[in-house]
Amino acid sequence: MKKVIVIGLDGLEPTIVDAMLARGELPNLARLREQGGYSRVGTTTPAQTPVAWSSFATGLNPGGHGIFDFIKRDPRTYLPDLALNRYESRGAFLPPKAVNLRGGTPVWEILGEAGVGSSILRCPVTYPPDPVRGRMLAGMGVPDLRGGLGTTTFYTFDAAATPRESENVVHLKSSADGTIETHLIGPRNPKDRSDLRFPFTIRPEPAARRVVIRSAGSPAEVAIREGEWSDWLHVKFKLGLLQSIRGMVRLHLVRVEPSVELYASPVNFDPEAPLFPISHPPAYAGDLAATIGTYHTTGMVEDHTGLVNERLTEEAFLDQCDLAWREREAMMLLELERFDQGLFYCLYDTTDRVQHLFWRYGEPDHPANRGKAPDPRFSSVIADVYRRSDAIVGKALDHADDRTLLVVLSDHGFGSFRRGVNVNTILHDMGLMALRDGARPGPDCRDFFHDVDWSGTKAYALGLGGIYLNLQGREGQGQVAPGEADSVRSAIVDRLRGLVDPVLGATAINQVRTREQAYSGAFLGEAPDLLVDFAPGYRTSWGTSLGGLPEGHFEDNIKKWSGDHIIDPLLVPGVLFMNQPFRADAPDLLDLAPTILAALGVPKGAAMEGKSLLA
After folding, report:
1. Whole-angstrom distance, CA of residue 492 vs CA of residue 473
2. I need a surface site. Which of 19, 80, 236, 479 has the fewest CB within 10 A?
3. Mind listing the pLDDT tens digit for each residue in 413-459?
4. How far is CA 539 from CA 265, 416, 418, 440, in A?
């Protein structure tokens, strides 16, 4: 083969694909199946986007590449931290350096060493980007300008409004002439950690159902109609007389009357002048913008927190998803037009985000519907994004000749998330977690382990399925002696394995595995001590994931984030299509990197665990 084209469709669920194929609704995937084949593909533990795509890229299980979740804990402080990258200080007078925390050797690096080029668009855990032989635009892991994965802002006259998930709230006041002076919250000042601000004014025009935004940004004036999004507003946050940080934002006008409510997207890096490099070579991000227009740069493009926080309507969220999709398609087509050899990869994330937020529309009794009949206008949203995915496959097929291996895959499947399991609360009731100052599990027990008494704690849960022992010599206030670790682990496994939800009478947890059972490799010591494999319909509760202890052992999931995939990985395989015959006996994500290398005539990496699937 001369070329390998890989199209990632994040989260495509095999049972949905099967049904739509049977109805003739995915003609391009059907064509791909006829040319080569179609199969399920095994995913990772956990079945989570950054974990799975890191295994795709390196051919290693998570113990070999070190990505186990979106978040990890600092064992000294127990506080959660982002697990995909970090910033290292280079001295008092130098800016920090971004460091990618994914270990292992990705397939594009091995290809580059063999003299074969790659074009990689938005693969997760590529921030900062790898120095590829070719071009790379970083994907999941690129922060917003605040340093988060998606920090939004809500503007309101409601003085009682408080911030929701990953959100800032700015309270508005009108001046005598009716204009509103306010600001955009930017990055923190490195000198004193105060928030940098970009001022702007809002002039409401109720008769026209719009507002006009004026600022020193570009464009200087932006008119936004009610229920619509603005174009990109390019802004500068001043650090000093000659220093500024560039960013860009889109604004959505929620309403004009009875009082203005405005929503601001996360402030994205400006691709022409990002705070840290987001592409390789560094100028590529700006060159891309000059060719296709301004595009989202954050790693989590789709603005899901706006809908989860009920600041955006479903229509507004889908409008934003449509723009994100069109941006990605433009990138893909630009690169495919000039792609003549090597590896091309492009990921579409929207498939995953839409299923997370619209799964409830296929289940009238889902707790997230809160007893109301789902709006029929959104009943076909998931099927629509699958059909749109199929159209993308058709465009990729147009660029695949007889010397091209075309691979289309998802990193995991999907399912319903109806009930959350309060793992920390169970550990507390087992006597393995202690609370201080008379605190009890419930709404007054704060996140980030704020009320935990570590001197009386032997185990704790953090993230989307991991449990850690409070080990002596490893954790800051470790209480479990090395000789006691096995008995503590066994007690947790015995308690959680086969856990039954008393309300529904259903099994909530299929299995609990030790990290040695789930992983191997250089990063094994950084993995959670235990991994929880949830049954369909269940997941770690929202409170547990951030170190909270909600009341009770189970809770209904009433958030609009109603679908998920962090369950027993055997139950959520991805899909795999190729235009060449391939070995379909239990293919795994670990097999993809060796397959790509084999197709291009390059030996697989010595550490890679998978095998080529090519027949």
Report:
1. 21
2. 19
3. 999 999 999 999 999 999 999 999 989 999 989 999 999 999 999 99
4. 28, 9, 8, 23
Same domain, 535 and 443: yes
Task: Using alpha carbons, select from 236, 304, 306 the residue that is nearest to residue 273.
Answer: 236
For residues 353-374, give the mean pLDDT: 97
- 424 and 456, same structural domain? yes
Beta strands in 372-493 (DSSP E): 404-409, 415-421, 459-462, 466-469
> What angle, 0 to 180 degrees and rounded to 10, lies between the N-to-C axes of helices 350-358 and 314-337?
160
CA 363 to centroid of chain Cα atoms: 24
Domain region containing 41:
3-62+104-142+299-414+572-599
Residue written as tokens 């994040």? 10
With a CB cutoff of 8 Å and minimum separation 6, the contacts of 452 are: 78, 433, 434, 435, 436, 460, 547
Do 374 and 476 belong to one domain?
no
pLDDT digits (tens, 9 = 90+) for 522-573: 999 999 999 999 999 999 999 999 999 999 999 999 999 999 999 999 999 9
pLDDT tens readout for residues 596-609: 999 999 999 999 99
DSSP 27-47: HHHHHHHHHTEEEEEB--SS-
Distances (CA, A) of 231 to 20, 154, 207, 225, 303: 35, 18, 22, 12, 15
Residue 91 in this model has a pLDDT that exceeds 80: no
C-alpha angle 167/173/178, rounded to 5°?
130
Q: Are 106 and 90 in contact (CB under 8 A)?
A: no
CATH for 388: 3.40.720.10
